[in-house]
Structure prediction request, 646 residues.
Amino acid sequence: MDYYNRFNINVDVDDIIVTTGGSEAVLFAFMACLDPGDEIIVPEPAYANYMAFAISAGAKIVTIPSSIEEGFALPPVEKFEALITPRTKGILICNPNNPTGYLYTQKEMNLIRDIVKKYDLFLFSDEVYREYCYTGAPYISAFHLPGIEEQVVLIDSVSKRYSECGIRIGALITKHKELKKNVMKFCQARLSPPLLGQIVAEASIDTSSEYMLMTYNEYVERRKFLIDGINRIPGCYTPIPMGAFYTVVSLPVDDADKFCEWCLREFEYQGATVFMAPASGFYTTPGMGKNEVRMAYVLNKDDLAQALAVLTEALKTYPGRTI
Amino acid sequence: MDYYNRFNINVDVDDIIVTTGGSEAVLFAFMACLDPGDEIIVPEPAYANYMAFAISAGAKIVTIPSSIEEGFALPPVEKFEALITPRTKGILICNPNNPTGYLYTQKEMNLIRDIVKKYDLFLFSDEVYREYCYTGAPYISAFHLPGIEEQVVLIDSVSKRYSECGIRIGALITKHKELKKNVMKFCQARLSPPLLGQIVAEASIDTSSEYMLMTYNEYVERRKFLIDGINRIPGCYTPIPMGAFYTVVSLPVDDADKFCEWCLREFEYQGATVFMAPASGFYTTPGMGKNEVRMAYVLNKDDLAQALAVLTEALKTYPGRTI
Prediction:
């Protein structure tokens, strides 16, 4: 509770359902809110596993492209409205965003709220990176949006906040009474989230603000280092991500999928290789993100420097380079 | 591997997919093997969560009643065949059984194999209690049945074996290549089973045979103590369970559901209450198990003695008693 109060997120203990990672929270949210054939609108690029969980629930993800040229800003509201059908049950956002690092503005969040309200949708809001916002402005949670409090399904996790991925502790947070009851049915079937993880996660909530600030500052440094480094490589471009610890980069290559594979299998520089996630996996629209990769700045600066050096050389050598 | 070799279960490392508890193994087995509308035949009474996972997969559990009068033996093969439809995709057994403690005989296992083979079904075999068989005969796994090795989907867990429920580590074991690939898709979506649980589970496999024997002997003692005690209470009857650590008991009451609730809310004896699981939740056929409860002999003998004393008094007092 104290944790959420720090972000002015007004939720009660009863609103929080602990899950086996954020992953299970997404799955249970979909299973409990969606019937087979129902649709959710998701701005793309998006975390690929949303699709997997939607398929598990028999639901359909309908994507709206956002583009690197526009810094991955929220697409215009008309584009959302054009996709709404009688089967549309919700909008899903990840804020701050994986893979783009985009942070929705107050204006964008208000637009989302208006659509959610107008069409009586669920707003699935994956906020697992909320600690890592670099704009200086206060974090805007879906729960800060007035008038849709009952429609918000917040996805949370300790994985990113405390670097505890393997712990597998997350949460589904909702004020919707009927939904809570239905989610609990799935919870009861799978018995409990991992006990040891629960103990670790509970202890982690008391992590000192000094440690959190140190981590934050470190990500700020790494972000600056990586973004500056990338944008100095000829033909490479990335917007400045405002949150999380990812950025999407366009590369001067024919096909980022092939390039990433080539970097691992065919290339090394000074005994090192570089591993990037091709962005095509984050898009559902065919052809989108073809020359883009997602980079994570979770390594320390020395390792990032080495990665940048390997990438620079790789781009000089790769047979499919376009400059 | 060594662990399974001890039971002459011939599986390779590649056949074993670690899951978040046996629960997830059941869910993934259903999700990967069954389309919505497909059917699985399950002898009842059965572990209630099978139903929940089947519903999650959009599949249908079709039950064949077994009865306390016949000691919960496998129903005759004709009863299975009468239920097979074009939508039948598998048979599910729990062996040794939760809730009955029944252990299938070689003859019964052969009958199951014949049906599975004849109709080309999956055999989902939940064997999480295999350490606790009290007949002295070697344990018969579904993987011991010749000719259906590719059709067996074994569900396993460390929860019972090492008293590690909260650890949430189980396994789905199959030699079916296509199925393995499909299960891995669900695994990749949910990321990893809990890390700390994996470490604990791996260490637990090296538990000394002395400790395992001590635990086994303790359950043998508790079983004898509970079964003898129950069968001495007027109007109570339970068969002798041959495995696991449960038994189903018929009680001289109008409605075991009401009685169990009454025992918790309205009755106490010498400052103690007794908590039992009404068996109706383990049946899907309406009316079955109405005067039955499941008892677990996981308490030590002193506590079991107290539970028996409370139950004896409760049955003298309960307004809905039938003797």
Observations:
- The longest helix of chain A spans residues 209-232.
- The interface with chain B takes residues 20-21, 23-24, 27, 31, 36, 49, 52-53, 56, 58, 165-168, 185-186, 188-197, 200 of chain A (CB under 8 Å).
